[in-house]
Amino acid sequence: MRGESVALNCTPLGVHDYFMLEWYLADRSGVRHRLASGELRGSEIQGGVHSSRGRSPPYQLDSQGRLMLAEAQVGDERDYVCVVTVGATVTAEATVRLQVFAKPEATEVAPNRGTLSVTDDIAQEIATCNSRNGNPAPKITWHRNGEPLQVPMEVNTEGYMTSRTVREASGLQSLTSTLYLRLRKTDRDASFHCSVHYLLPKGQHGRLDSPPFGLTLHYPTEHVQFWVGSPATTEGWVREGDSVQLFCRGDGSPSPEYTFYRLQDKQEDVLKINLEGNLTLERVQRGQSGIYGCRVEDYDAEEDAELSQTLELRVAYLDPLELSNGEELALPLGGSLATNCSVKGLPTPTLRWTKDSIPLGDGPTLSLSSVTFDSAGSYTCEASMPTVPLLSRNRILRLLVEGSPELRPEETLPKAEGSWTEGDEVRLVCSARGYPEPKLKWSQAGGHPAEPAPGGQGWVSSSLTLKVTSALSQDGVSCEASNPHGNARHVFHFGPVAPQTSQAGVAVMAVAISVGLLLLVVAAFYCMRRKGRPGCCRQGEKGAPPSGDPELSHSGSQRPEQTGLLMGGASGGARRGSGGFRDEC
C-alpha cells in the first residue's frame, strides 16, 4: 500500500564464500540504471547506494543485500533487477516487479438538479460520478433502487455511460463517469447511486458507494383523486358547525394548478384556485350540502386523461329536542302519563328514553301508569345517529308525583318493649316523602330540621335524640309528616321502663340519712328540756317534792355556770305553774 516501507530481497542459491551483488532500475524502455552494489565480506554484505535518481527518501542497502524503499510511492512501480557475480565469469540475475496500491478518496456524485421530462425520447444526463487519487485506476458502476444498471459505453437512445481517467501529478489516477438514461414515470421515486471498485494487495477488492439521490421529473397528469378529509365519518357525513377540508391530488409533476368548484343547477361556482390542492370550508351549514368538484389544469396531459373529479358533501345536523308536555310535569299518585319527544335531523336520528342511565325503551313516546313516589325523578330523552357517532342531543323531563306523605320510622339501636331502663338514650329517625315536600314535626322538643335522606328518591328525614323516662313509656313519642294532600303519623312506644339500680340505692340511703338526722335533732331537744327540770333530769330524785329557794340556792352554789338558766327556768315555772313542766316531762 502507498506509504508503507518495502524491502526487495536478493539471495543467491548455494553456498559461496564471496560474491558481488548489484541492484538496477529498469525503466519503461528497458534501460537499466545502477542503484546500489555490495560485496560479501564474512557474513555481511558491505556496500552502498550509488544513485537514488531523485527519490525521496533515498534508497538504502542493508547488510543482507536488500534494497530498502521507505514510504512507497506510485512512482516506485518499476522493475528492479538484482545481478550476482561469483568469481570472474559466473553471473546470475532476477527481476522483481513492484506494484503500489492506493485507496481512492470518498466517492462524489453530482446529480442533474434540473427538471427532466419523461416525454423526451432520448437519453438524458442523469449524474456524474468522481473517484479521485487511486491506484490502479478504479472501476465505476451505476445502480437504480439497489440494482446494477447494465448500460454500454456506446451512445444510444435508451441509456449509456461515458468514462474518463486522469493521472494526477502525484502519479495517482482519478476516474470520472457520466450516466445517461431515457426516463420513465416510474423513475419519479427511484433512488440512484454509483459505486467505485478498487484493487488491494494480495488480490483483495474494495468498494466505495456514493450517497443516494433522486431526480426531479416532469410528467403529465393521468389520474386525479378527490376526497373529504377529517373529520368526515366512514359514511362520508360531516357535522354541522365543523370545519371541513377537501383534498385534491393529481399524479402529474410538478404539481399542477387545482380549481375547486361547486355544482349548482349544472353550473360551476368556482370556490378557489391554488397549487396546494386543499380547500377548507369553515363551520359548514346544512345548506352547504351538495356536489363539489376539483379540476387539474395540466396542459401536457393526454387528451383522454380524466382531469376532473366530483364528490357529494353531506352535512349531518340535529336540532334541539322538543317535549310535548314541557320539561316539568306533576301527576297525582297512581296517575298515568304518555309524553312524546320529537326532533329533526339528518340522517334520521334514533330516540331513547332513560332514567338514572337505565334504558326504558326506544322510540319517541314515554308511557307510565299507576305512578308511585318511586316514579318521580328525571327522565332523559336521547337522540343519536349511529352513522355520525359524535352528533347527539338530550332533553330532561322532571316528573313530580303529588300525594299525601309516606312515612318511614327508624330507631337506632332498637329494643323490645319492656327492655328499656330509665335514662337510656335513644335516637329516633323519621323519613317521609311526597309532593309537595312534607314537613316533619315531633311531639317532643329537640328534633333536627328535615334534610334530604341518604339514597335520595325524594325522602327527607329528621332525627330526635332523647332519654327514656317513665312518662315516655306511657305516652310514647310521635312523629308527624304533613303536606297539603294529607298527613301521616307514627308513635314510637317503649313499654314499661325499669328504674335504674344505682338510683334506687341512692334514694334508700338518702331516706335513711334524713330519718337519722331527724331522730338526732329530736333526741337533742328532748335532752335539753330535761336538763331544765331537776326532778326529771337527775337520777334518784323521782317523786321528790319541789323545793323552795334554799334548794335552788344550794343548787346554784353547786353549779354556778347554770344558775341563771335554772333560776330563769324556776321563776318562769312559778308563774306558769309546776304542773306545766311535769306534763312536758
Describe this entry's structure for a reader:
- Strand 16 (192-199) and strand 17 (205-209) form a beta hairpin.
- 12% of the residues lie in helices and 45% in strands.
- The protein has five domains: 6-97, Immunoglobulins (Immunoglobulin-like, Sandwich), CATH 2.60.40.10; 108-218, Immunoglobulins (Immunoglobulin-like); 224-315, Immunoglobulin-like; 324-402, Immunoglobulin-like, CATH 2.60.40.10; 411-498, Immunoglobulin-like (Sandwich).
- The strands form eleven sheets. Strands 28, 31, 32, 34, 35, 37, 39 and 40 form an eight-stranded mixed β-sheet that branches. Strands 20, 22, 23, 25, 26 and 30 form a six-stranded mixed β-sheet that branches. Strands 4-3-2-7-8 form a five-stranded antiparallel β-sheet, with no helix packed on it.
- The N and C termini lie far apart (161 Å).
- Residues 534-585 have low confidence and may be disordered.
- Helix 4 (549-558) runs antiparallel to helix 5 (563-576) and helix 5 crosses helix 6 (578-584).
- The protein is elongated.
- The protein is built from six helices and 43 strands.
- The protein is mainly β.
- Residues 536-585 are annotated as: Disordered.
- Residues 1-97, 104-196, 231-312, 320-392, 405-483 form the Ig-like domain.
- The chain crosses the membrane at residues 506-528.
